[in-house]
Amino acid sequence: MTFKSTFRDRLHEWLLRVNRLYHKQFYTIDSNPDGIDIFEEDWDSLVLLDACRYDALADQDELPGDLESRVSKGSQTYEFLRANFTDRDLLDTVYVTATPQYHRFEDELNATFHDVINIWSDDSNVWYNKGRQVVRPETTTEHALQAAEQYPNKRLLVHYIQPHTPFLDRPTEELRTDSNIYRQFISGELSVDASTLREAYRRNVDITLPHVADLVEGLDGRTVVSADHGELLGERLFPVPVSCWGHPHGTYVDELVRVPWLVHEQGERRDVTTGSSKTSDEEVETDVVKERLESLGYTD
User: Fold this and answer.
1) How many CB atoms lie within 10 A of CB 238?
2) 3-class DSSP assignment, residue 203
3) Of 169-178, 205-214, 230-239, minimum mean pLDDT range
4) Per the record, which residues fall in region Disordered (predicted)?
5) Domains in the chain: how many in total?
6) Rounded to whole angstroms, how far apart are CA atoms 163 and 15?
7) Does 3 score more than 50 pLDDT?
């Protein structure tokens, strides 16, 4: 990394911190106080698309149901998990997840699910391409449908990693160079234009939605498709008008915390019951967790 790119990166992060201070100046908790508690909402199955903007679903025609919106408690996944999961008794819920973020902070979050299915931890479920490791959306759908059949009397929480990077269909070879694409773009190391990155994000949405539709159509009851947070695609923040990409924490702008809430109902509602925890202390090698996180752009 050159001195010039390092300076740009650090200046950008400093300006983001100024904006975060503005957004959090009146808050006494480290999350968005206007956000919903997802477990207090009415659903049998809640499908989370990681980093999915509200407008990414506004014009789509893949998913059945009626689109509303909600406000998230977090502008990034850890913040969302901490605000919704911490110290919760969730023994009526099975969590099927393609992201390692819950596992990464599991001890701190101290949530108790009936079962947690970490799809990402099994190498056979992971797509390897140019050094990136990610669970493809069709794999998440397959495991979610299996969980729905295995646990017919539990709420089902399904967490896809898409449309979060890495991009499944990269429009230029240069987007293959690094897992933290947005940071490279901001620093000037990545010489693609903004429209290329926006198109790559939209393609991730387009690739994912047919597989989400397969899941929604395969589930009975009240199914909601939502997101843990949105994504910035070059919008200027406030009060410091810096252009931003990705999903910095503590930044409660509309593009990050207004999330889709698409409701589809079919068949009978689930007769949800609680139960004991079936989760085990799953041992995942530290290197595996690190590699999966780096593939999502978490390199710090």
Assistant:
1) 11
2) helix
3) 169-178
4) 268-300
5) 1
6) 26
7) no
